[in-house]
Amino acid sequence: MIRIVIVDDQEVIRDSLNILLSSQEDFQIVGIGKDGYDAIRLVDTLKPDVVLLDVRMPIIDGAEATLTLKHRSPSSSIIILTTFDDDEYVLKSIRNGASGYLLKSSDMNELATAIRTVNEGGSLMTPGVMTKAFRLFSDLAKERTPPKSVYAPQEDKVQIPSNISRTEMQIVTYIGQGLSNKEIAKELSLREGTVRNYISSILQKTDLRDRTQVAIYAIKNGLVEIDEK
Fold it and tell me: What are the residue boundaries of the Response regulatory domain, all occurrences included (predicted)?
């Protein structure tokens, strides 16, 4: 059962998502909120598998809330709900650890697939969005000197640790391509649990925080081809 929290400042959106998602046998709606404060409170208490989070909300917006949510509950996957796919808030949310975004106009099949994808460790970032995110992070790096982070390097590429194995590099590449743990396991003929162990090792060796950072890491090191247009 996938435990889900819904957070949106529009009551009609909250109610619609609740009704639609409750019809799925493998989904359980465990909490519903109307703003970023509610999101933090609910995730703190419930530790859901997936959070559907509106990007533009009062008190605390989705981008800011994402950073706090990933700190409080790293295992919770966050899907940003938005009206426009080029919203700067969406890119900042991805930078802060969201697994991707979903347009509010998406149908039930797209919504259900997205939830199952991020719950299995996948992402919802298209190459185009990933490129925009990468450019945004590079621009932010020029504006200020941030803490050590793959998002804001001082050079075009970050150093690949010498102790990363060939299999780990393959997994980094697959994560950059948006594959889920299940899909990676199939590609490498491994168990999903083994893939998760490899990812934990990758995070430790690269000093990265989460899967989204690994995806950006893959792009920065030329392991994934992206559309530069």
Answer: 3-119
At 95, list the tokens.
């930078």
Q: Give the neighbor-by-neighbor strand order of the sheet with 77-82.
A: 27-33, 2-7, 50-54, 77-82, 100-103
* CATH 1.10.10.10 placement within the chain: 127-220
Q: CATH for 2-119?
A: 3.40.50.2300
CATH of domain 127-220: 1.10.10.10
Distance CA 223, CA 215 (A): 10
| Cβ burial, residue 189 (10 Å; 0-12/13-18/19+) | exposed
> Are 60 and 92 contacting, i.e. CB atoms less than 8 angstroms apart?
no
Take residue 41 and report the two structure tokens written for it.
């409170």
Residue type, 152: A
Domain limits, CATH 3.40.50.2300, in the chain: 2-119
Locate 104 and state its tokens: 């509010």
Conformation bin of residue 58: beta by default, left when phi > 0, alpha when psi is -120 to 50:
beta
Q: Which two tokens stand for residue 128?
A: 């185009």
pLDDT tops 60 at residue 50: yes
Taking only the tens place, the pLDDT of each residue in 116-126 is 988 987 777 65
Model pTM greater than 0.70? no
